[in-house]
Structure formats: C-alpha cells, structure tokens
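Need tokens for this chain, all 431 residues.
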Amino acid sequence: MDEAITKKTLENGLTVFLKEIHTAPLISSWMWYRVGSRDEVPGKTGASHWVEHMQFKGTPQFPANVLDKAISREGGIWNAFTSFDWTTYYETMPADKIDLALRLEADRMVNSIFDPEEVASERTVVISEREGSENSPMFRLSEAMQAAAFRVHSYHHKVLGDMADLRNMTRDDLYNHYQTYYTPNNAVMALAGDFDAAQMLGRIEELFGGIKRGDDPVRLQRPEPEANGGMRLSVEGEGDTTYVQVAYRFPSAAHPDFFPLNVLDSLLAGASNMNMFGGGGISNKTTRLYRALIEKEWCVSMGAGAQATIDPFLYRITMIPRDEHDADAVIAALDVEIERVQNELVSVDEVERAVKQARALFAYGSESITNQAFWMGYSEMLADYDWFLTYLDKLAAVTPADVQRVAQQYLRPNQRIVGVYLPMNGEAKDD
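Here are the structure tokens for all 431 residues:
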C-alpha cells in the first residue's frame, strides 16, 4: 500500500481511503456502493440507475430544493454515476467546506425519502432518457450486441434498464433496492485533497460510525458459458449511416491478461480510457487499424475500446464503412489486420510505443485531486487499490510475445459477435 494512503475499515464495515494532497485547497470525496446493473433481475432492470436519481431528491435534513444550491453556494461540484458493477457519488469542494459533503452522504445513506410523487416524476425522466438513447443507432446496436453476448450473465442489459421495467417498477421496488445495497458494509469512501488524515478519519467515524451495519448483499453469480461459435446480427432503423461493430470477449480487470490486451488495444486502435473523466489528446492516427481501415479508405471512422469490469465483458471495434463498401468488405479488411498481429510477432519498438500511449492516457486521467480520489474507490470496486498502484508496471512488463498470445487467444472469429446497423433512410450496405 502506498505510504500516502490511509486505509481503515470502520466497525460497521465502511471501508475508508484517505490520501493527503496539499497542492490546492480542495478535497474530493467519493462514496461507492457495490451495486450496479449486474445486480438486477428481470422485472427490476434499471433500478440501480433510478435509485441513483432518487438520491438527489432529498432527506428530511437535506430537502431536494436546497441540496444543489447548498453545494453550489459553497463553490463545490457534485454528480453521480451508475455502471454495471457499482454506483458512485462524489463532491469536490473547497477544503474548508467539505464537511457539508460528508454530512450529506452520511444522511442519504440511511434517510433518503423516496417520496411517491418524486418517484413518479423521476419515472418520466428515466423513461425519457431511455427514449432518447433509443434514437441513437449506436445505442441500439450496442444493446443488441450486449444482449446477444450475455444470455445468462446479468451484463445482458444496459444500465438504463428495459423500458417495460421502467414503466412497471414501484416505489417499494426502488426503496427495497436502496435498503438492500446502501449500507456501510457495502460501501467504500475515498477522499483525496488538502486535509489531515487523522482528523478526517475522526470526522468520518463521527458521522458514519453510528450507521447500522446491514446484511451483506449477495451478488448475482451467473457466469456466462463459453461461446460455442460466432454470432452475427443486424439492427434496422432510421438514418443514412451503416455502423459495423465487432465484439470479442474481454477478461475481467483482475485477470492477468487484462494488461497485455490493453497494450494490444493501444496498438490496434489507440488506448482505451479506463477513467470516465478522461485524459484526451492521444491520437489514434499511428495505430494499425487507422492505417488499415481509414488510410486505405475502407472506413470513414473507426474506434475501439474496452472497460474494466468485475466479470469478463467485451472488447468492441466500431467502424463506419465508406459508401462504396459494404459491411462484409470492411470486416474482411479488419480480419486481415487482426490476423497479422496473430501471425507475425510485433516488434519491440511498436509494443513500446503502444505501452507509452496507454501509460500516457492513464497518467493524464490520474493527476487531478478528483481523479486521485476516483481511482482509490474505482480500484477497490474492481479488485483492490494495488490494481491502481501496479497498473503502470504491469503495462510496462508486456512483451511482443504477450501481445501475440492474447491476440490469438481472444480475437478469434468463432468467439466473436458481429453486428451491423442497417439504415432504412438510405441504401443498406449488407447482404
């Protein structure tokens, strides 16, 4: 464990990470809960995201109409995110105002109201969010691909949930979800910034130590069986653009192959950003797929990416073919380049460049106080904080042989899903 990190687990199970950073009079506080869309069953999909919305609707101590004003008045920012494996809330504030954020999070861990009128109002909001997403061809294609890839595992559905469930879930469904998962023993709190760790820990114990431990939630465990062949699907919809997506199985963040695959991703298409706050400025114009697909005029656009998850997920390559090419031609061009990296050992120089790019993106997304606090909690959600501390070293240790091995093992045509979005307002470019 990094000497700059204080880690403490309170008697009620709340895990606390503290990192002193005295470069600016700011503190970023993150509250993470081990619950996301993977913890939802059919009929309740979208509950985690909806509960996240309800956490901004107030408590008796912090009514909804004063929360945002109070944070803004003190010069802070706040937000929340729901993913497959976790839900998180954060506040970044002037150091002398952070106590407001601490009191807020302690209060809404146990006292959120879930007023029926607010639930009804927010139902309209989440349904509208779902409807807006459905207008996106890429959302529709991605959703279909995800559903096909995960027949058994609860990664089957999007974080937003299914429309039927959003229309039918009740206030009690949401409140029971909240009471089940929003407990100190199912939470991780991470703070970074301008504070004394001992004093901050004392204040956290004052505010959170009296919160009753809950039953330990049982996470759904339904491993996805190994695919016994490739799949292909098509989605039809409005628009005039064809999209092609090829998805391969990608291991969990804690798997040793996660790191050579990230280097392979960097080499093929440009490093994936593991941090939601980004760190841009990394061009993909030197990558193999850019040269093979864009410069050779097979595609007008190309991108790829993976995300860190608790269980195996997907590595997706997305392409927009040029008008003169159909989906099959673009997929064939992609396959040529993937076969090259499988059959020909990548040079040491190319691997080093790919590693450097992945390391740079990681560093750009790790430097601010907000990001430092983010990574402590995020790593703990996926594995543990050592995952973050050793991230760069594990990237640097990747060899050309590692890259070739994972390309051969994971980028297999008989293990992938190919999806094509066919626009109905234009000429479909697929057979």
